[in-house]
Amino acid sequence: MTIRSARPDDADFIAGTILSSMRGHRPRGWFDIALGRPEAECLAFAARIAVARTVSIWHVSRFLVADVDGRPAAALCALPFAGSGMAAWRALEEVAREDGLGATELEAIRRRGAYLRSCWLAGDDDDWLIEHVAANPAHRGRGLVQALITHALEAGRAAGFSRATIPFLIGNAAAERCYARAGFSFAGEKRDADFEALIGAPGFRRFVRAM
After folding, report:
1. Which of 106, 133, 169, 187 could form a disulfide with 201 if both were Cys (CB 3.0 to 4.6 A apart)?
2. Measured distance CA(172)–CA(168) in Å, rounded
């Protein structure tokens, strides 16, 4: 296993990581719902965001990758929480406009994706955010995610942060066990009935740990 920074040629793998992590233990995630497109088109859109000019939470430069036998097997992103939401929307707008989407279509994406705001629980402005954590099913249970989290925490400490935060869907037991093993503990949760009706999970839970 080798841990490294993601590269532009990892865009397709990062896109798969983003979709998988946003779905969690449920069949659909934010990209599926907000874009309202088939999976292949969602993956292609996410891959373009991963190498967009706008650096966001979805950009390859924010990701660490675990390689096994020279091939990507797991990844996560780590970055300052402050400003991450605004940058994500700017990146989405950039790619949407390159796709020829107009203001009406962009507004439809915003409207479909707005469900997330009802119970999104990510962090505080002075937190180091770890997000989009996923491993290829064939490589799960091999310690890849724990190694990635260790490297992500080291990067946060080097950047001057003292606390890390990590959000996940309530009911994602595998994620909860994984983050607890990495030293994270419960810091809060938000639930919403409409969110649960759409996604099938009650809302979001947040774990934090000192760095």
Report:
1. 169
2. 7
Q: Determine the Cα–Cα distance for residues 19 and 8; give it in Å rounded to an integer.
A: 17
Hey, what CATH class is 2-210 in? alpha beta
Rounded Cα–Cα distance for residues 145 and 65 (Å): 10
Going by C-alpha positions, the residue among 173, 171, 182 that lies closest to residue 143 is 182
Q: How many residues are there in the chain?
A: 211
* Chain center to CA of 103: 26
Put simply, whether the predicted model's pTM sits higher than 0.85 gets the answer yes
**Interacting residues of 199 by C-beta distance below 8 A, sequence separation 6+:** 26, 28, 115, 169
Whether the pLDDT of residue 141 is over 90: the answer is: no
**Residues 71-99, mean pLDDT to the nearest whole number:** 95
